[in-house]
Design a protein that fits this description.
Elements (H helix, E strand, L loop, with lengths): L14 E6 L2 E6 L4 H7 L23 E7 L17 E3 L4 E2 L9 E4 L3 H15 L16 H9 L17 E2 L4 E3 L9 H9 L5 E4 L6 E4 L12 H5 L5 E3 L12 E6 L8 E7 L2 E7 L12 H5 L14 E4 L2 E4 L2 H13 L6 E4 L6 H14 L4 E2 L20 H6 L12 H6 L5 E4 L12 H4 L4 E6 L11 E4 L8 E4 L4 E5 L12 H13 L7 H11 L8 H4 L4 E2 L13
The chain binds iron/sulfur cluster (SF4) (2 copies) and FE2/S2 (inorganic) cluster.
Length: 562
């Protein structure tokens, strides 16, 4: 994904012998010592090193003791009693992030010298650091706090006045900088210039007066700026959206997917007591590495929008009134029974999960309805993660045969006007007025049934409104634009009486056809994997947290088996 994957060896089979804390082991040539220690289940603390960025070696926290094979007078390694080379240790520690392993290298990660060095580095780093922890948003996931526990001295020998630096600096639209907390690791600078190719941040002034800033006339506003709040090891960069909202240790973490475009970045949903507080990227080298875009990250506020639909509505005398689910489902079923299958049209949605789409597919098959399509939702593709498909599961609609890419839908306005379509079922909150079916035309339908999370021009015209669940409120799977099947997990309950669409469709199916074999989302998956050839043999455990590549939905040969 970027050229700096230090955690990935160039060749996992090219192994060299190294000794880590007295134990000989084989590690891939070229890995740096921080990564080697990690693989050896040891830990070398580090601030400036980040596996996806270039190495600068400026924090000095990763000091370790290094040795090389002791050479005899014959210039051959001297062997110890165990037959392995004896190590000659260098008197001066080295930095692990900028040292790649070589054959026979000795590494000590926790010797007294190493611990002494780390104590010294921590003392330096904290000289000017403010005592902000009680009011700092990074508390709970701050590397200064964490390493202080192990390497802090507990008291400061610094009696001079601390250097005062700017606090609460408005660095860009979404990021606030507290310069006093910055430890000058330059991760944010490197992320911007190396990953985003946006040279916007830099250090000014010298020594303890060094300060992070945006270049004159520039603002730190690129589309991925919030990733720097994740990788800033301290509380210097914080998200305007999340700061002061919630202590991180109160957050429940749920593995899920971003559904704001077809890439399907892997995310962790941070929620508490039924409210989502933040989304953060979850590492998946096959999808988004360790990053996500700011748009997707902040696109969860709709969950609490004033337009949120949270109970079924039925139209009577031209007005929508709250109703029970039983009445709403019955009214939908009665209305659909009154028209012939070829007078029904269905808007499936690339926002629905595969499970929801499958229940719909089964229902349409039982009813004999063939007029089904999806609304295209163009996204703003960039050359990094954002996809040109604004729907997260367009590939799923294609896999299940529920989309013709909007071609059928383009004829529906005319068919409604001619009375060929009398009933329209709109799922996934699609907005048909914007998609080209005028409100007057929709007004001619005998029945318009809408399911979605937000009220819009289409829902306001509907005879039946069925409130659905949003991405953080449902469990299921989606297929991203590159053909990767991925799982999402419910983090919070849907508000009010809103329900996941597979439940809505299951109830509608029971009312319409009596079909009742799908009682849980797991049942749906089992039936779907038994029926859809490309999913055959897959279960949720096999899909795993990182998803699995499905070769058969290849588009122009983009996707390989994995
Ligand atoms: S703001 Fe954070 S990421 Fe940037 S240099 Fe300072 S400590 Fe490092
Ligand atoms: S690139 Fe797409 S999937 Fe990834 S975070 Fe952005 S909107 Fe979400
Ligand atoms: S992590 Fe190695 S010097 Fe900063």
């Amino acid at each position: 994904m970027n050229p700096w994957n230090h955690d990935v060896a160039k060749d996992e089979k090219d192994l060299v012998d190294v000794q880590v804390d007295g134990v000989w082991m084989q590690m891939p040539r070229g890995l740096n010592v921080v990564e080697v220690a990690h693989r050896a289940k040891k830990f070398i603390p580090h601030y400036c090193y980040h596996p996806k960025l270039s190495v600068v070696g400026n924090c000095r926290m990763c000091l370790f003791e290094m040795g090389a094979p002791k050479m005899g007078p014959d210039r051959k390694p001297v062997l110890g009693a165990d037959g392995k080379p004896e190590i000659a240790w260098m008197p001066r520690p080295q930095i692990g992030c900028a040292t790649n392993i070589a054959p026979g290298m000795g590494i000590r990660t926790d010797s007294p010298l190493v611990k002494d060095c780390r104590n010294g580095v921590m003392e330096f780093l904290l000289i000017n650091h403010p005592l902000d922890c009680p009011i700092c948003d990074q508390a709970g996931e701050c590397k200064l706090q964490e390493y202080s526990v192990e390497y802090g001295t507990g008291a400061s020998r610094f009696v001079e006045n601390k250097v005062k630096k700017p606090k609460n600096v408005d660095l860009g639209k979404r990021i606030v900088l507290d310069d006093e907390r910055c430890i000058l690791c330059s991760r944010c600078i490197r992320f911007s210039s190396e990953v985003m190719k946006d040279d916007v941040l830099g250090f000014v002034n010298r020594g303890s007066h060094s300060t992070l800033t945006a270049y004159p006339g520039k603002s730190f506003d690129n589309a991925y700026s919030l990733n720097t709040a994740d990788i800033c090891p301290v509380g210097a960069l914080t998200s305007k959206d999340f700061r002061f909202q919630m202590r991180v240790w109160f957050l429940k973490e749920t593995k899920s997917l971003c559904t704001s475009c077809g890439t399907g970045c892997n995310i962790t949903i941070g929620s508490r007591e039924g409210k989502v507080h933040r989304l953060t990227p979850r590492e998946n080298e096959s999808v988004n590495s360790q990053w996500m875009c700011d748009f997707g990250r902040l696109n969860f506020h709709d969950l609490e929008s004033k337009k949120r639909l949270d109970r079924p509505l039925l139209k009577a005398a031209g007005q929508q009134f709250p109703a029970t689910w039983t009445d709403a489902i019955q009214r939908s079923a009665d209305a659909l029974k009154k028209v012939k299958p070829d007078e029904i049209a269905v808007v499936a949605s690339g926002r629905l999960t595969n499970e929801e789409l499958f229940v719909l597919k089964r229902l349409l098959g039982e009813l004999g309805v063939t007029r089904v399509d999806t609304v295209m939702n163009p996204g703003q593709a960039d050359n990094f993660l954002r996809s040109g498909d604004g729907n997260p599961n367009s590939r799923g609609t294609e896999l299940l045969g529920l989309s013709s890419g909007g071609r059928k839908l383009s004829a529906w306005a005319g068919e409604i006007a001619l009375g060929k379509i009398k009933a329209l079922l709109v799922l996934g909150g699609e907005e048909l007025v914007a998609a080209g079916i005028p409100a007057e035309t929709l007004g001619k339908l005998e029945v318009l049934i809408f399911s979605g999370i937000l009220s819009n021009a289409t829902s306001q015209l509907a005879h039946v409104v069925l409130p659905g669940a949003a991405f953080a409120e449902k469990t299921g799977s989606m297929l991203n634009v590159h053909g990767r099947l991925q799982r999402m997990t419910r983090a919070i309950p849907a508000p009010g009486e809103a329900r996941e669409d597979w439940m809505i469709l299951r109830d509608m199916r029971m009312a319409l056809t009596g079909g009742n074999s799908l009682h849980s989302v797991e049942d749906v998956w089992k039936s779907m994997s038994a029926e859809i050839a490309q999913l055959s043999g897959l279960n949720w455990a096999r899909i795993g947290d990182l998803g699995i590549q499905i070769e058969s939905v290849l588009h122009q040969g983009q996707v390989k088996a994995g």
